[in-house]
Hints:
Strand content: 15-25%
Mean pLDDT: 82
Distance between the termini: 62 Å
Oligomer: single chain
Low-confidence stretches: 153-159, 287-292, 605-609, 666-673, 726-731
Helix content: 25-40%
Shape: globular
CATH superfamily of the domain at 294-444 and 742-798: Cysteine proteinases
Amino acid sequence: MMQHLSKIRIPSGGEKVYKDECVFSFDNPESETGLYVCLNSFLGFGRRHVERYFRKTGNAVFLHLRRIKRELPKSDEEPEKKKPTKLAIGIEGGFAVDEKKYDFEEHNSVVVLPDWTKIPLPNTEIPDMVSLSVAAVLAAESATKLAEAAAMAGTWEGEKRIVSKHAENLVQLDNGKKIPPKGWKCEMCDLTSNLWLNLTDGAILCGRKFFDGSGGNNHAVDYYAQTKYPLAVKLGTITPDGADVYSYDEDDMVEDPYLAKHLAHWGINVAAMEKTDKTMLELEIDLNQKIGEWDVIQEAGSKLEPVYGPGYTGMHNLGNSCYMNSTMQVLFSVPEFKQKYADQAESYYDSAPLDPTNDFNVQMAKLGHGLLSGDYSKPEEPEDSNGIKVVKPNGIRPHMFKNLIGQGHPEFSTKRQQDAQEFLLHLISVIERNSRNSSNPCDCFRFEVEERIKCIQSQKVKYTKRADYILALPIPLDALVNKDEFAAYESKRKEVEASGDRLDPKELVRPKIPLKSCIEAFAAQEMVDDFYSTALKAKSVAQKMTRLSTFPDYLIIQLKKFTIGDDWVPKKLDVSVDIPDDLDLSDLRGQGRQPGEEELPEEAGDQSEKVTVDEAVVQQLADMGFPANACRKAVYYTNNTGVESAMNWVMQHMDDQDFAEPLQVLGQPKRNDFAVSEEGLAMIMSMGFSGEQAVRALKATDNNTERAVDWIFSHADELDQPMETEAESASDSQPKYRDGPGKYKLLGFISHMGTSTLVGHYVCHIRKEGRWIIFNDEKVALSEHPPKDLAYLYVYQRVQ
């Protein structure tokens, strides 16, 4: 050990210590061979990766962490299960996934290579420098926990409600009303629950109707539309500690620091009030605990048989990471991803930089190997004669991958629940950036979309093509095939609720819609009112039709279940879609320009001067949180007629593929130049990099400065190569398409439970070896009743 003392270090404040998990595998201190932490770099390694690192760096001294985890026998006096207080799984206050008790036994030592000399700890004879380093590593907060804490800063569970802008100067009418302490009823119907007191005039009205039909009749929302009185408090939630206050104007739950004064105006003494109704969060949790979508998708009540081995490895929920878990399970069921990452894992490890935690390909290889090797998917150990069993790691915890894929992203860097479709597109973008000099597995998803625009007045046409990865299908609610059954259910539900009761959730009837109807709605002609016709040199009306020019090897279909209600509140459609195992999309193939069709002329010159928008309205929309480019489009396409019409346009076009892209008037040549962020350029150059290197990095990362710095370090071998010309870059960036018959077979699907993408839970089902398998975070089992009709994303594999 003495010959290596010069390389022993003590971790300084803020330095990351990777003592929870290997940087190349999912081995950890509880694995059979434990974890080895380098006392120079503080990176952790599983045993099979230690020598590789020693040969590359010469770092020979490691702290070996070995922890034995034992499950304790159940006590006769089990504590009462706590009711969840957060709509999440596996986090404090959320739905419990493991209520067992454990005992831990630590066996730590110092190991010196190349002979694997082992020195058990504690030991008074080891050099002081080694003792200090070991003590500091053991005392340090792990890199994983530091990243978790950083992500929690923006998570919705701990998010404090904003103080309403109306609270301080709220107008309250002197109309003589006094609110009694009980006996409340909606002033527009007979409901006696889910009641809201308007703080301006004292009106008591029922709240919104929930996705399952329960709740109110929307009378409080309708009342706001008439009066614009902004704040209401939920009766029954008022206590000395506060209450549920909603701002209709700000469209959110808010804080009212003057609530006691506002309630006193209506004769309500806050100090004497007790809670008699459920808060909005409690109602959301209750709704998702019902037998509806939540239980159906998780196949609750079925005796699911666990499966183990290669390809059947679960992923632990790292606090609302189920959207990522389901997406990665589906991706690694596609052969291209296995071949790119899992099969080549060793080569990525051998060529990894000294800090592999920030190398995307290494972390993808680690994830692929972890999911497909079977190393982390083994049956539980049997109990000994005392009812105690040693618990070995099962399933993987992809902390490093989650931190890396979310790095610099405003949403995926947090622990908030995210949308699986948005995450998939983000992941595809990152994979493409990291596959510039190698095969790109996402090529198997890419297809070309053909859009045909026909000017009604001139009868001339224009064909445009674009690349896409997901076929987003609308859900035509007028195409339901169980109209009579659903109408009878709705009638019975309303009748029962009018009497103050509720239907048994088992009687729930959802609208049933064939996937064929969704495809027909996608293929239907659409009228475009604000079309700039280059033939007329003026705005006109046009017909738009969308087809597919190519069919990918694997087709991802998204059902557009998330939409905006008439009250501008995001909601999820609770529908059942009839999904076939075999799908033929041959009729969707585009044919290009047909004989006899005359093309719209290309208009010479830049038409940007003709595009005039009211920048004040654009700024008003942008202040609401919408992308600036989308706001400009909204104002332009509504002819500068004001905020309300522009807002309506935004709501109608939020799902457009080019929603946040710059305004491009048809007939106006597109700009290919890339505007480099001056601030990012200056920051990167201040670190000692050249202007050309900084521009290249910012261009590769869409002006994300943090990711650009990482890009420079991971592409050091490219920095001295001549920078591509714009023509070369455009040539290289041309998408490549695979094509074949439009016939597919269902491979897997991802389902979402909950009323919003911001809450709930994701689960995926994958067909493997002729069987349907459910992947519910770390739980992997044979599926008895795969809920194909309730899913959100579907993956189809092309068949010949």
